[in-house]
Structure formats: C-alpha cells, structure tokens
Write a structure and sequence with these properties.
two-stranded antiparallel sheet; 13% strand; single chain; 15 helices; 9 strands
C-alpha cells in the first residue's frame, strides 16, 4: 500500500491526500452505509460522483470529499480542524489493511458477487457516537420515519460544515447537544421516549463509548450492549460503520433474515436459521450480506401492504 502524505492546499484552504492500495477500492458501495438516505444533512453525493461528508473528529470538525481516482486509488480533500487527523487515518477508515484470505464463500451468488465487486471494503470511521445516534433512531420503526427524524434533528441542532461545503451540508450535533434536547422536541421529531432516552443515556457515556474503537470488534460490541437500550442489532449497525466489523450481522432486523433466506435458499427463514446458515462465513457474515445487496441478488417477494409508518408527533 502506498500513500501520499497530506499536503496543504492553500488555494482552497484545505488538505489533500491520495491513498492507493494493492487491491481494488470500490468507493461508492464502501461509503454507502455512511449515508442515512436521500437528503441526509451530513452526507451528499455530487453529480460528479464525489462523496461529501461532515464529521466530528477528536481534534475537531471536518468536511471531507472523497472521489474515485482509478480502480486502486481514492482522492481526498478535507477542511476544518479535524482535517489532518481524518486524512492521516483514511487508509484505516477504508480498511485497506483487510485480510480476505479466509473469506472463501461457497454459495454461487456470494462467489459471483465477490468476483464482481472485489473492491468492496468495510468502514472503520472510529466515530462511535456518530454511528450510534442514527442507528438508535432506526430501532423498530420504518426506515423512512427514522431518516425523517434524523434530518429534522440535525437540521435543527447541527452546525455548518467547515470549508467550501455543498449547500445544506451540516455537522451532526455533538454529544452534549444530543443530551440536552428537550423531551417535547424528540416527540415533535417523531422519536418515541425509549429511543430518545437511549440516545441521551449514550450521550452521557460518549467519551467512554468512543474508547471502544481500541478494542476488538466483538469486545467493543459487548461494551456497547452494556448501555440500556442498545442490543445486538444496534451494536451491529454501529460496528459496521465505526469498527470495520466484517462479521457484524444485524440480527433482529425486520427484513434481513427473510432476504437472506429468499436470496440464498429460495424460502423465508428466521433469525436463528439465518445465524446457523451463515455460520461458516465467520468472520465475514456482514461482508457477505453487503455483497448480496450491491450485486442486486438480495431480494424478498412482496406480500401484502407495506409496514405502516409510526407517528409519535403531536397533532
């Protein structure tokens, strides 16, 4: 792996870096889990395919722009107090150190998906609380509702992203801000009291939770689950983004077991059967799921009406 060092770019008041790897890097599907749907205030994909994102690094806020620079390279530009820290850790974030020698799937669909998308990487942002909030918002509610809540709260409590960011790009609120959001504001954002209390509780523990990045993913997930309101599903969703955990299977997801069953077996299965069936793929069960998703193989027949949207707002 060869990496250029971050160099000042005085004309744009930012820093630039190009990371290259021995193997391919497929940037768009790798970064896709960072986005919380269309209109996410913290993530935008430009018409030229570049990905813009705003985060809070330990050293301060950062706006970064990542773009594909050939099959084995990514161009990066970053602004703000956290720019140097972000660029220094970019190869780590993109999991360019992954060892896939033990990923030997047997199902033809997974084999084909891995052949077609060898550049899919896991994500290791190291930003636990940033991944935690939207994951908790998505607990046991329709994704459409959860993402609308995320947009509303970030637009109300977030702050402008540093540098020449695209219009509407915002930094997510910091932990202290999340902790201080009043109960009636959560309600108006269509967030029920249980999810709101989990986020507030986690915000009080944010510093301790961030230290989980230094642990093995399985140990870090257990640390997360000590917080009341964070279970196996939520810990997995965080691990997929913050820890680079290729095995973080979202057990308890409303659709996942059925999708895995229909895609790989031609019939629906439950969580227990999914866990048993995917066991030989450890420690790459989440990687296998992502490959099925981006390859277009993942599917589930539609039966009956959609899940109703949950509305916690006042009228």
């Amino acid at each position: 792996m060869r990496n250029q060092t971050a160099e000042p770019d005085q004309s744009r008041s930012g820093l630039t870096r190009t990371v290259t790897a021995e193997g391919p890097i497929d940037l768009a599907p790798t970064l896709a889990p960072l986005s919380r749907g269309r209109g996410d205030p913290c993530h935008q994909v430009a018409t030229d395919g570049a990905h813009w994102h705003a985060s809070r690094m330990p050293t301060g806020p950062v706006t970064y722009r990542l773009s594909q620079a050939g099959s084995h390279a990514v161009d990066a530009r970053a602004w703000g107090p956290g720019a140097a820290e972000f660029l220094d850790g970019l190869d780590h974030m993109l999991c360019l150190d992954e060892d896939l020698s033990d990923f030997v799937p047997e199902h033809p669909k997974i084999v084909d998906a891995h052949r077609r998308f060898p550049g899919l990487r896991m994500l290791r942002t190291g930003l636990v609380f940033e991944a935690l909030v939207p994951a908790v918002l998505e607990q046991k509610v329709h994704t459409v509702s959860a993402r609308a809540s995320w947009r509303k709260l970030v637009r109300q409590f977030g702050s402008p992203a540093p540098g020449p960011a695209p219009d509407g790009l915002l930094l997510p609120p910091d932990a202290d801000t999340w902790r201080r959001i009043p109960s009636w504001t959560w309600h108006r954002a269509n967030v029920g009291p249980q999810r709101a209390q989990t986020i507030v509780r986690a915000a009080r523990l944010a510093d301790a939770l961030e230290r989980a990045v230094a642990e093995e993913p399985a140990v870090a997930a257990r640390r997360l689950r000590t917080v009341p309101g964070i279970g196996v599903w939520t810990a997995a969703e965080i691990g997929q983004r913050a820890f680079g955990d290729a095995d973080a299977l979202s057990v308890g997801d409303y659709h996942l077991a059925a999708i895995v069953g229909w895609t790989l077996l031609g019939e629906p299965i439950d969580d227990a059967a999914m866990v048993e069936y995917l066991e030989p793929l450890r420690p790459h069960r989440y990687r296998a799921v992502r490959l099925l998703e981006i390859s277009g193989y993942a599917h589930k027949p539609k039966f009956g009406p959609r899940t109703p949207l949950t509305d916690h707002t006042w009228h």
